[in-house]
């Protein structure tokens, strides 16, 4: 196994050598063989493309009962439905009606992908769905869905190799490597995004982080108000749109961010709050940073359960006496909108290896300790 490797623009260090993967795959295959020894029927092995391709191959050659094979890809999050699943199964070639399906995944992180797929397969008529994943990040897996077969558990860090990619590269590595956040340039300017549903405490945590780490807070709302107050060209343009009740276009917001970046070349880094909200904005931010030789270093995602979001929004509305916002269906709708809007952005950053999920429950100080521990890896 090689030492440090460069995949595209990031360094990765050795994490799981192929020999250890082989042993873990041997063990998981043995369990599946045992469970299906006297199975009445022919299960279908379902490879989740693209990441699971190598694992599925290794697993299948160890299975010693009759089985069929098919593969699928899941569409990225695109629906804005307030109920149900927002994704589609693509390319399922054989019918799974009435069949037992063994889903083979590369990695389960938050479990969003696998729970969506599980529901979609049952919807498509599968009689039974078993899950087999090569890797699991138990620290972040928060779903109730039972994972029948897990070959190996790993820590909550970003990895590549053995089918898993960083920006589509690195899948062909035989061994698994882990993002080397410790040896990445400590001097370059850092950029952090803070994410979370309404009521997660983003503003509070951002304010504490700025003080502790000497960063600059970029809130697009604040920037807009400042430009308008200063009467700049951008500000005037934004104001005329807002006065007409229209949305400020991405270009204007991005222009403000670019000028904010250029006005503060000496700070250690920035924390973005409320931006980007869409994948298009995320791509523009990447381009803006790349033009300055920089990148988004980490996306800090404060997680609180929907029920807690619900209670916090309702509580806030009651205090502020906004009767409309106390209606359950309105609150549910806001939460659904939040998920459908942010999930594409989350999956975008996950693909870049910078997404870090943090438990947002507990006291302000408890959450701050968790967020700070993640930040310290970068600063
Ligand atoms: P989940 O929906 O469970 O949060 O995420 C599962 C998907 O995220 C995986 O199928 C994979 O595409 C991606 N993913 C999660 N963690 C990692 C990782 O450490 N490395 C890579 N390359 N992809 C990951
Ligand atoms: Mg996958």
Question: Summary?
Answer:
The protein has eleven helices and 15 strands. It is an alpha/beta fold and 379 residues long.
What does this molecule look like?
- The structure is a single chain.
- The protein has 379 residues and is of the alpha/beta class.
- The protein folds into 2 domains: 5-179, Rossmann fold; 188-215 and 267-375, P-loop containing nucleotide triphosphate hydrolases (Rossmann fold, 3-Layer(aba) Sandwich), CATH 3.40.50.300.
- It has 11 helices and 15 strands.
- The strands form 3 sheets. Strands 5-4-3-6-7-8 form a 6-stranded mixed beta sheet. A 5-stranded parallel beta sheet has the order 12-13-11-14-15, with helices on both faces. A 4-stranded antiparallel beta sheet has the order 1-2-10-9.
- α4 (202-213) packs across α11 (364-376).
- The longest helix is centred in the C-terminal third of the chain and has 24 residues, at 328-351.
- The radius of gyration is 23 Å and the shape is globular.
- It starts with a strand and ends with a helix.
Proportion in helices: 25-40%
State the total count of DSSP E strands: 15
User: Would you tell me the overall average pLDDT?
Assistant: 89
Domain count: the total is 2
Beta-strand residue fraction = 15-25%
Quaternary structure annotation:
single chain
Order of helices and strands: EEHEHEEEHEEEEEHEHHHEHEHHEH
Largest sheet: 6 strands, mixed
Text of the CATH class of the largest domain = Alpha Beta
Principal-axis shape equals globular
Q: Which compounds are bound in this model?
A: guanosine-5'-monophosphate, magnesium ion
């Amino acid at each position: 196994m090689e030492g440090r490797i460069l995949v595209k623009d990031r360094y990765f260090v050795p994490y799981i050598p192929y020999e250890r993967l082989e042993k873990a795959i041997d063990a998981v295959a043995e369990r599946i063989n045992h469970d299906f020894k006297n199975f009445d029927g022919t299960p279908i092995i379902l490879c989740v493309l693209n990441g699971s391709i190598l694992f599925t191959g290794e697993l299948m050659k160890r299975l010693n009962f009759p089985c069929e094979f098919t593969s699928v890809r899941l569409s990225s999050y695109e629906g804005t439905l307030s109920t149900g699943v927002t994704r589609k199964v693509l390319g399922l070639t054989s019918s799974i009606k009435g069949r037992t399906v063994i889903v083979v995944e590369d990695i389960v992180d938050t479990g969003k992908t696998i729970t969506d797929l599980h529901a979609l397969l049952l919807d498509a008529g599968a009689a039974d769905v078993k899950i087999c994943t090569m890797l699991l990040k138990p620290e972040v897996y928060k779903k109730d869905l039972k994972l029948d077969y897990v070959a190996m558990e790993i820590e909550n860090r970003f990895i590549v190799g053995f089918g898993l990619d960083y920006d589509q590269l690195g899948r062909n590595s035989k061994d698994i490597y882990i993002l080397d956040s410790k040896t990445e340039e400590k001097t370059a300017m850092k950029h952090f995004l803070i994410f979370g549903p309404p009521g997660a405490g983003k503003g509070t945590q951002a304010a504490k982080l700025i003080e502790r780490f000497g960063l600059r807070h970029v809130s697009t709302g604040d920037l807009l108000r400042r430009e308008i107050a200063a009467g700049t060209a951008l500000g005037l343009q934004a104001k005329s749109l807002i006065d007409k009740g229209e949305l400020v276009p991405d270009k204007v917001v991005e222009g403000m961010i670019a000028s904010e970046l250029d006005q503060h070349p000496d700070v250690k880094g920035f924390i973005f709050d409320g931006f980007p909200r869409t994948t298009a904005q995320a791509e523009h931010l990447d381009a803006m940073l790349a033009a300055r030789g920089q990148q988004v270093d980490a996306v800090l995602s404060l997680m609180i359960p929907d029920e807690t979001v619900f209670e916090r929004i309702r509580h806030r509305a009651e205090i502020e006496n906004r009767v409309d916002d106390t209606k359950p269906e309105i609150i549910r709708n806001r939460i659904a909108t939040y998920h459908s809007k942010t999930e594409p952005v989350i999956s975008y950053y996950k693909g870049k290896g910078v997404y870090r999920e943090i438990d947002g429950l507990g006291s302000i100080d408890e959450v701050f300790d968790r967020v700070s521990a993640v930040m310290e890896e970068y600063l």
